[in-house]
Task: structure prediction
Amino acid sequence: MTSIRTRFAPSPTGFMHVGGVRTALFAWLLAQQSKKINGEGTFILRIEDTDKVREVEGSIQQIENSLKWLGISWDEGVDQGGPDAPYKQSERLAIYKEWAQRLIDAGRAYADPYTPAELEAFREQAKAEKRPFLYRNHRPENPPTWDGTQPLRFKSDPKPYQWTDAVMGNLSTGEDAIDDFILIKSDGYPTYNFCHIVDDAIMGVTHVLRSQEFISSTPKFLNLYEALEVERPTLATLPFVMAIDGKKKLGKRDGAKDILEYAKEGYLPEAMANFLATLGWNDGTEQEVFTVQELIDAFTLSRVQKSPARFDEQRLLWLNGQHIRALSLDDLYARVEDFWPVVAKNTDEAHKKQVLALVQDRLKTLADLPILTEYFFTEPSPDWEMVSTNKQLKKLNQEEIVTLLAATKAVIADIPESDFVAENIQDTLNQLLETTGQKPGILFSLIRLAVSWAPFSPALHDTLATLGKDTTLRRLTESIESL
RNA sequence: GGUCUCAUCGUCUAACGGUUAGGACACCAGGUUUUCAUCCUGGCAAUCGGAGUUCGAUUCUCCGUGAGAUCACCA
Result:
């Protein structure tokens, strides 16, 4: 494998959604793989800001933050430079002008003399005659010298194309797909169609990954590569990521979320990377859960799916749980810093870690932490409806409840402070089961509610051990008194 | 409308032309002495339709059908 150079080239028009991030991820994986195999591999972050109208303030920062969150770093790019700096297209206008001049000199570009109204008339005429509109059918015979105030058009060489796409396989089109498109707009900025090809050539990009919507523009690009006499990179067209319920491609207008929203919702970046990578790609084995390193090793363009995939949040949620459980306690602790319930604010690290260990298996997202742990940090309010609506406990009358809780208090109080650990508590409670003649479903459920007043909690003996002897006794007392 | 692309369980997918069409998510049932979750076991569930090629098509070809993309001085 030769050394791979890939790039991610977003336009700064807002936040990043999952579709865009997946394209970046695949390109990055390819570069990392190349780095690993032969020591060389480059991932470039280039900003395509040639549409000043659609540009959104702060987008570049947002894009960088999104990539960083996912663990994607770039070797060359806007904020850190590189051999082909600048990496912002609005700062490269002179380069595009120079390349455009080459095309003009070679007779492959000309000034567009028509007004927008005239163009519109051509279009309507074509529509009325039910034939496709092609600008080249109206190519002016003696175009004016280009002075930068008119758009500069590519003089295309229409012909059928056949090419191989690294994902889609063999593709072909007829000559109708080729037209005289605009290279440089009348505002002096180049179009995407032109400048991305120039930049990819200058930057030595070997693999161009982009989403499916560009597939029908590819023949135009092929035509331009020839006119520019530059080598064509490997083209890889990724299928769309579709909206969850609909059949439309996932876009900002169709409810696509900012990737950073998922961070706020408690998703792990490695889970998101795993999810995005396996959305439309698999390594041919039955492995479902991948670390980022495993993805780097296993990724191949040839195994990317040709058909669009739907964004399945259930699967993302499951993967997130898998990755949370794979974390060491210390690592998890570092990640949940912003997710503790506010009442845990002044709790010491040791206790928080103890609680965290108990709920690690129960977290689907980091944001589940408060509901799972709040009662460890603050006194819960007794809610006897939880007992009266419980299908096992509702048979108990008030007297029985008091008797059982009082008995529990007594045996708990008998455990020496220094022996108040899960194992001993379990033994004690098991004995209590025998002396009271109760089933675990009744006695344990009652105790669990009396000390936590939570809809669910970890194993009872673990919960009590973590609460500590004093707290356990206090809550039992409070619960009895509140009855 | 022109051009182009795609098509296996509800979803994500596996299957060098030969498999009882496999796995995962979700869902359902059972188990792990309370709950929730984890974990384990089992269950439900698919090759868009029609021709052809072949001893044999999920797989190759053609025609339909369905879905999507694109036809900008947006990227």
About this structure: The longest helix of chain A spans residues 18-38. Chain A has four domains: 4-87+240-313, 92-238, 327-377, 385-481.
